[in-house]
């Protein structure tokens, strides 16, 4: 199967400057081709990859700056644009802003890429027009390289290899089904009572980031101080993003290894985190509260967790099922009574019909699992040989104490 291998690059000043130029040229090709596609759509006509690639070849003869970048990375940019327009629509694809877009480009021809290990800590790769680039060797690529993507993030350059590792997805998994509830207080809660969560930004980083935001608001656009402030903010946000990625990959690996079926809510995170500000004619309500909820959802990485689980499931043969999220947090898993008043607080669930008590997130995770057709007994165990009165053992992943007392 195809897998990604990402490494941090150690570029020379000349190579870093060349990467900046390649990224800028790809950005210009993307924006120009997108504007051409939109103009054709306004006239009722269509434009796709084939004629744009032919026009790009003609443009390279007229403009010398286009010949700086390798031809295949520009053609790959047009292919990515074509795929984005077909998936999302021509007028919904975004421009690549010079200030907001991080430079990246892809070498799609794998047989032109050579990877060697120099010593225990370092390796090198030969990329077209860049020559030999050094990267931190953290693991073996482990297969045939299909493509390489060079990108910049938080002031550092990285290379990602797309590798065909030759591994096939297993056809059978001996684990048990599990339901996973994603929340804004605890990132992921399982139907077995395990809580997966961690802080992605320290208190000092949060304070520092808010001060940088205030400094950014006072800085002049286009100034050197503004660029320095943005770079400092990107470094803080980059560390938090890396921690979030490590956490989601770690959690997804353990869920996919232990369970044969993982049931998630079918959440459209993009729609859920849309701004409530509205328009001038129809202003939104509770804008500040909605903004806080949006930050909490994005901060816990709901969508990234789902992607990580799907990626880990390919290695273990685990089945990922999506269910309707309606009333999963208000329904009692024992008697199936739905009442919003049953959820006394974020952590306490007491059914108003039968009096069943449980942690609110665990109860929701059990409902998610039941919605996929996997019945969960009231005591929470999935085994048929255990006693119906036996309570499940405490999970090792529980980072905080559960409190079921009513306030």
Describe this structure in words.
- This protein has helices at about 15-40, 50-60, 70-90, 205-220, 225-260, 270, 285-300, 300-315, 360-370, and strands at about 1-10, 105, 115, 120-125, 130-135, 145-155, 155-165, 175-180, 190, 195, 260-265, 320-325, 350, 355-360.
- With about 400 residues, it is an alpha+beta fold.
- The protein has a domain at about 15-100.
- A 7-stranded antiparallel β-sheet has the order 2-6-7-1-5-4-3. Strands 10-9-8-11-12 form a 5-stranded mixed β-sheet, sandwiched between helices.
- A hairpin with a 3-residue loop joins strand 4 and strand 5 (about 130-135).
- About 25% of the residues are buried.
Topology:
Blueprint: E1 2-10, H1 13-42, H2 49-62, H3 71-88, E2 104-107, E3 114-117, E4 122-127, E5 131-136, E6 144-153, E7 156-164, E8 176-182, E9 188-190, E10 195-196, H4 203-218, H5 224-258, E11 259-265, H6 269-272, H7 287-300, H8 302-316, E12 319-323, E13 348-350, E14 357-359, H9 360-371
Parallel strand pairs: 8-11, 11-12
Antiparallel strand pairs: 1-5, 1-7, 2-6, 3-4, 4-5, 6-7, 8-9, 9-10, 13-14
Helix pairs in contact: 1-3, 2-3, 4-5, 5-8
